[in-house]
Specification:
The chain is α+β, with helices and mostly antiparallel strands. The protein has helices spanning 15-20, 68-72, 122-127, 136-158, 217-227, 263-284, 286-295, 300-309, 317-329, 346-357, 416-425, 434-441, 454-462; strands spanning 27-40, 43-49, 57-62, 79-88, 96-107, 162-163, 169-170, 182-183, 210-212, 229-237, 250-259, 313-316, 361-367, 383-384, 387-388, 392-400, 404-411, 447-453. Helix 4 (136-158) packs across helix 6, helix 4 packs across helix 7 (286-295) and helix 6 (263-284) packs antiparallel against helix 8. The longest helix is centred in the first third of the chain and has 23 residues, at 136-158. The chain starts with 14 loop residues before the first helix and ends in a 20-residue tail after the last helix. Bound molecules: 4-amino-1,4-dioxobutan-2-aminium adenosine-5'-monophosphate and magnesium ion (MG). Magnesium ion (MG) binds at residues 397, 405, 408.
């Protein structure tokens, strides 16, 4: 019985192990929550789930053995401890079941339980996000989420990257988009201001203005230019007022940063890494994926297997604009314009990925003016319709079917002078950036990295449609419940 979690002193066996066990006749104890109960003629059947697997174990109870007082309290959602014998199941679809000899009610559950009904809407389940992990779908999503975190750590560990912890509280704005949540201990109703009306932070906790980080990249670059290859993986925060199915105010980001990496190697890393994670899900989350494939998205497993077979398209931004403008000439209607220099809207990205190429696209060589200050400037300017365009940078966005942008990354500008030029022309406060500039001042090296939105990966791998449903407790504008 060793190794199966079964033991003679009746410690509990996880349902996942109980279902694998063929040691029929053995004593067993399982604990979990009632998913359903049915019965007839003095025999009742309970589907018990303990979260270790999407599958339930069937408990068979005899009303001459289990007292009526107890049987009455076995209701949907109640928590039970069941002792009994593991027996071969006559029912189809399950090898074993448990013939109960003793049932204890650990926690009763009355009919006000919000997960009573099957088929509740996603919107309703968000209002009970504190309980929704107990549903089949959220159990599956959360086990897959855990597995994707394991895939990420394993991938980088196996490839010689060091897990480098970057701070959540910061005084710099990596993306420069001004979407930061401030961190302060000051009384907001009684702020000290100077003669120009600017807040004085001298007496604040950190003695300066601080915020929650939008990205660990800048500190990650310090790590990469010392340890060679690092990754960060943690929460990031954005105060952008985007109420979309793809944006959270608090999301998790994976950010590798690598010394001596060029653009081609970066794109190779982005593709290899995503494929590794998808393969991990197919190899390690079979039961949960099969459930989601049946109940949520019938094309899920096929789409995941498809991505493994595809080679991602490498598409310069200028070529992308050409394709989009050609499509418009041929009658395609978009809501937003797409002239060279515009940030592509999600309808443009979706056209390229879902209709034109029908596979993931890594777009690169973006116009400098729509990307962040740290990206390496291309040596040559692109030409469109015989005309030379403005400067471009070695930025990459990985665009996925139904998700849109899943990764944003770039080669970093390693020249001190060019980087300074960008910082100055964009008006980024210099006093906050000296530590970052030291990477370019002392032994500067070519390097590159990317950020993958963890929840966007989970959306892809689970087939879910709304980012609020792939994180246990979503934070979005006007919502910080639980
Ligand atoms: O493209 P972004 O803004 O890039 C950076 O932050 C870089 N500093 C990363 C780097 O190079 N180390 O964000 C990276 C990814 C996006 O591609 C997207 O997947 C995700 O983070 N993301 C969000 N996910 C959920 N909610 C939001 N509000 C997100 N904003 C970005
Ligand atoms: Mg981006």
């Amino acid at each position: 019985m060793e190794g199966l979690g079964l033991n003679p002193i009746m410690k509990r066996t996880k349902v996942i192990d109980a279902l694998k066990c063929t040691d029929f006749g053995a004593d067993i104890c399982v604990k979990g929550w009632v998913r359903s109960k049915r019965g007839s003629k003095g025999i009742f059947f309970v589907a018990l789930n303990d979260g270790s697997t999407i599958k339930n174990v069937q408990i068979v109870g005899d009303e001459t053995v289990i007292p009526e007082e107890i049987v009455k309290q076995i209701t949907t959602g109640a928590c039970l401890s069941v002792e009994g014998k593991l027996v071969e199941s006559p029912a189809a679809g399950q090898a074993s079941e448990i013939q109960a000899t003793k049932i204890d009610i650990l926690g009763t559950c009355d009919n006000t339980y919000p997960l009573q009904k099957k088929g509740a809407s996603w919107e309703y389940l968000r209002t009970v996000a504190h309980l929704r992990p107990r549903t089949n779908t959220f159990g599956a999503i959360l086990r897959i989420r855990h597995n994707m975190a394991m895939a990420i750590h394993t991938y980088f560990h196996e490839h010689g990257y060091f897990y480098f912890h970057t701070p959540l509280i910061t005084a710099s704005d990596c993306e420069g988009a001004g979407q930061m949540f401030q961190v302060t201990t000051k009384n907001l109703y009684d702020l000290k201001k100077d003669e120009n009306g600017s807040i004085i932070y001298d007496d604040d906790f950190f003695g300066k203005q601080t915020s929650l980080t939008v990205s660990g990249q800048l500190e990650g670059e310090l790590g990469a230019t010392a340890l060679g290859s690092i990754y960060t993986f943690g929460p990031t925060f954005r105060a952008e007022n985007s109420n979309t199915p793809r944006h959270l105010a608090e999301f998790w980001m994976v950010e590798p940063e690598v010394a001596f990496m060029d653009l081609d190697e970066l794109m190779e890393l982005e593709e290899d890494f995503i494929k590794y994670c998808v393969r991990w899900a197919l190899d390690n989350c079979k039961d949960d994926l099969e459930f989601l494939n049946k109940m949520v998205d019938k094309g899920l497993i096929e789409r995941l297997e498809g991505v493994l077979k595809e080679e991602f398209v490498h598409l310069p931004y200028t070529e992308g604009i050409k394709i989009l403008q050609e499509a418009i000439k041929n009658g395609k209607k978009f809501e937003f314009p797409c002239e060279w220099g515009d940030d592509l809207a999600s309808e443009h990205e979706r056209y390229l990925v879902e209709e034109y190429f029908k596979k993931p696209v890594i777009m690169n060589h973006y116009p400098k003016k729509i990307k962040a200050f740290y990206m390496k400037i291309d040596a040559e300017k692109p030409v469109l319709d015989g005309k030379e365009m403005e400067e471009t940078v070695q930025g990459t966005d990985v665009l996925f079917p139904s998700i849109g942008e899943i990764i944003g990354g770039s080669v970093r500008e390693e020249s001190y002078d060019k980087l300074m030029g960008e910082i100055e022309s964009r008006g980024i406060p210099m006093k906050d950036m000296t530590w970052y500039l030291d990477t370019r001042k002392y032994g500067s090296c070519p390097h590159a990295g990317f950020g993958l939105g963890f929840e966007r990966l989970i959306l892809f791998v689970t087939g879910m449609q709304n980012i609020r449903d792939v994180i246990p407790f979503p934070r979005t504008p006007k919502n910080a419940e639980f």
